[in-house]
Amino acid sequence: MPDPTPKPLLTGETRDSLVDRLQSMGEPPFRAAQILDWLYKKRARSWDEMTNLPKPLRARLADAFEFMPASLAFSRQSEDVTDKLLLELADRSLIETVVIRAPQDGVGLTHSRKTICISTQVGCAMGCVFCASGLAGFRRNLQAGEIVAQLLQVCYREDTRTPRARTELASFDNIVVMGMGEPLANYDALLQALAILNADWGLGVGARRITISTSGLVPRILQLAEERLGFRLAVSLHGATDDVREKIMPVNRAYPLGQLIPAIRTFSAQHGRMVTLEFILIEDLNDSLSPPEHLRDIARDLHAHVNLIPYNTVVGLPWQRPSAARQERFADVLRSARVSVTLRLEKGHDIDAACGQLRLMTEKPR
Ligand code: SAH
Ligand code: SF4
């Protein structure tokens, strides 16, 4: 017997697609608004909590849709600032979602500003030599509903921490698409998920608070620029010459800097906002082979912000993070040229917060 057709994921439906599906079940459009209100605003965790839907309808909906495609398999907390969620999908694939908290002055961690880092693929096919996400290869793209489910799982945890605060994600929270996978290689599902997170009937997170990080898929950067959706862009540069970048990021062979830099310029021009260049500092690799002056010149030319990230060591890989003094020297070259730069204090180093690492450690013993 062939597998039964998989059910559509409730968390992957837009309001319009849900209205269509309900209409084909003979239900009026207002039911879609009720269901979405339960799911995203009241954070119901089952059909049975949706008490203004007739009971027989709830049973039919349970047959027709997958309510929640990700379950919490494991979580780990570091000094109360970083929360790492390992989620299990229906096919037993594992993905990770990270919450990084920055306490707000005077109000403590319950009202902290959160940055939520989400995954878009199981594994990654891009093959960057320093990264844990690609080590176990690429398994599959996430569906839109699996991307959205990560945010709901974070909300469920927040609701438990502060039981009376079942509100939308706070207006100061940010979403970064920097977990496992190359987001722009899963373009359609990513944009569908972001539309749901962004919508007022969904999680209501403003486009400016959503940052997509890419290793540099030039045609997709240009496509995203055309769509003018308002999401922020971060580009993983990590090498400021083709020589160095090619050594550590195979994508540079397909899209060398001569194509990538103009694509970033186009994106900036369409959006009128600064793009971020991410640059991991890896000892004796890109911190000395690619002197900071090259990065400085690119950043000035693009009027981009630079995010320097001290490398997080990965079990099984030889790379190291440079000393703090070496990191500062690198940053100073940029600062003294008035480039806007942050030297990221790597939170969660102790819980392997760098992308893909927790999954790797959990899957190996399996
Ligand atoms: N695939 C996308 C988004 C996910 S990776 C991209 O590459 O941009 C998110 C960021 O984490 C990227 O800048 C990536 O290069 C960086 N990263 C990967 N492994 C890391 C490690 N071990 N230490 C520090 N940063 C790492
Ligand atoms: Fe994939 Fe990004 Fe890791 Fe490169 S850095 S392997 S693109 S997740």
Question: Would you kindly provide a written description of the structure presented here, covering whatever features stand out?
Answer:
The chain is of the alpha/beta class. The protein contains 12 helices and 12 strands. The chain has helices at 15-24, 30-41, 55-64, 144-161, 187-198, 218-227, 242-248, 251-254, 257-271, 292-302, 324-335, 357-363; strands spanning 70-78, 82-89, 94-104, 108-117, 121-123, 138-141, 174-177, 210-214, 232-236, 276-281, 305-310, 341-343. It has a 10-stranded mixed sheet with strand order 1-2-3-4-7-8-9-10-11-12, with helices on both faces. Strands 5-6 form a two-stranded antiparallel ribbon. A hairpin with a 4-residue loop joins strand 2 and strand 3 (94-104). The longest helix has 18 residues, at 144-161. The two termini are 29 Å apart. Mean pLDDT is 88; it is low at 347-354 and 360-366. It binds S-adenosyl-L-homocysteine and iron/sulfur cluster. Residues 124, 126, 128, 131, 133-134, 181-182, 215, 236, 355 line the site of iron/sulfur cluster (SF4).
Summary of the model, kept short:
This protein is of the alpha/beta class. It has twelve helices and twelve strands.
Number of helices: 12
The share of residues in helices is 25-40%
Number of strands: 12
Structural category is alpha/beta
Ligands: S-adenosyl-L-homocysteine, iron/sulfur cluster
Distance between the termini: 29 Å
Inertia-based shape: elongated
Order of helices and strands: HHHEEEEEEHEHEHEHHHEHEHEH
How much beta, percentage-wise? 15-25%
Mean pLDDT: 88
Biggest beta sheet attributes? 10 strands, mixed
Strands side by side in the biggest sheet? 1-2-3-4-7-8-9-10-11-12
Radius of gyration: 21 Å
Low-confidence stretches: 347-354, 360-366
